[in-house]
Design a protein that fits this description.
By secondary structure, the protein is mainly α. The protein has 13 helices and no strands. It has one domain.
């Protein structure tokens, strides 16, 4: 029986070690944040109190625009997937619930959004099978934006290899092209409907611009907070923090994402207490914006009532919703 070469056995081990180390960095940063709160809470509180009110207000306003643009991105995907009859109120209400769930656990956002859309839009909502892949184009456009952030952020520190951002960008573009071909091949299958936005040049360009827009708003929010705490505000450091937030956000840290990201990205260029306080303001602004957005959306929904005012015929009303 032929033996497996030693290098072939070592490669999977090295890959596992790299993944473990990459997960330990944000986890260690979060543990450090907890230690600082427990041991240096007074200094941390003083740093938070010293920050001007306009910092939190500006960060909240920027994140509110981010939430609105994220909802518009999903509306664009839904329109391409055959959800053109879904009213704006229903989509915003579903996303409000998704944002609330995502604040506590990022992985809960997608199933919450789909469930609430079925609840609020009723028969107008596309079947789950038609929007199952709807997040894929949005995520891949976000990966493209993250690659640009990483390219700029790599100039601030040497931790990110210069080739990595461009490999990330090339990989995302290649996957987008593959998904476009996959939709063309299985156009008639309902599972491919979530990729239909890639086949429409107008909607595809609209989605790309929206993703660029909410990335810019996230950059502005981060810049405002970093300026308020006298942290480095050059584009390289702001992009580095924002890219780190995207990476750390994949972990189940909830509101701990902001402090952990700031400490992980700026540990060498700022005091730990200042970086932790700035991250806590980012998290506070995020939660505040989500609560304001959800409250405004649901207040508007309760005041204006349902989106659709066109009565249904008895045949339409009695027809069962499209199957899964």
């Amino acid at each position: 029986m032929p033996s497996v070469p030693r290098p072939a056995l070592a490669r999977p081990v090295r890959a596992k070690v790299r993944r473990a180390v990459s997960a330990l960095v944000p986890a260690g940063a979060l543990a450090l944040v907890g230690y600082l709160i427990a041991t240096r809470g007074a200094a941390l509180g003083a740093a938070l109190v010293a920050v001007p009110p306009w910092v939190l207000a500006g960060a909240v306003a920027a994140h509110l625009l981010t939430l609105v643009l994220r909802t518009e991105a999903w509306r664009t995907v839904l329109r391409a997937a055959g959800g053109g009859d879904v009213g704006a109120q229903a989509v915003h209400a579903a996303n409000a619930g998704a944002f609330l769930a995502g604040t506590l656990q990022g992985q809960a956002a997608l199933p919450t959004r789909v469930a609430l859309l079925r609840r609020f839009a009723g028969d107008d909502a596309p079947a789950v099978s038609r929007i199952a892949l709807g997040d894929a184009p949005i995520v891949l456009f976000e990966v493209c934006s993250s690659a640009v952030l990483a390219a700029v952020g790599s100039t601030a520190v040497g931790l990110i290899p210069s080739w990595a951002p461009w490999a990330m960008l090339g990989g995302a573009i290649a996957i987008l092209a593959a998904l476009r071909l996959l939709h063309a091949r299985f156009r008639g299958h309902r599972l491919a409907a979530g990729l239909a936005v890639l086949a429409d040049p107008h909607l595809r360009n609209r989605l790309a611009l929206i993703v660029a827009g909410f990335t810019a708003m996230a950059f502005l929010r981060t810049l405002i907070v970093m300026a308020g705490f006298d942290l480095p505000t050059d584009p390289a450091h702001v992009c580095l923090v924002l890219f780190t937030m995207g990476a750390v956000g994949l972990l189940p840290l909830g509101v701990g994402t902001g402090p952990a990201s700031m400490v992980a990205a700026l540990g060498g260029s700022a005091t730990i207490v200042t970086a932790t306080a700035a991250g806590m303001v980012v998290s506070a602004a995020t939660v505040s914006a989500v609560l304001i957005y959800a409250g405004a959306v649901w207040l508007a929904r309760s005041t204006l009532r349902p989106d659709a005012t066109v009565p249904r015929s008895p045949i339409t009303a009695s027809a069962p919703p499209e199957g899964l």
